[in-house]
Amino acid sequence: MPSTLTENPFASTHSLDTNPFDDPPQSNEPANRAAELDRRERELQAREQELNKKAEHIRTHGKNNFPPFFPLIYHSIAEEIPEASRPLITRMFQLWLVLLGTLVVNLVACIFILLAGSSDGGRDIVASAVYLPVIGILSFLTWYRPVYNAYMKEQSLYYYFFFFFCGWHLLFSVYAIIGVPSTGLAGLINTIQMYSRGALVAGILGTISTAGWVLQFVGIGFFFRQIWAHHTAAGHSVAKAKTEFAQHGARAYFTRG
Question: Of all helices (H) and strands (E), which one includes residue 240?
Answer without folding.
Answer: helix 238-248
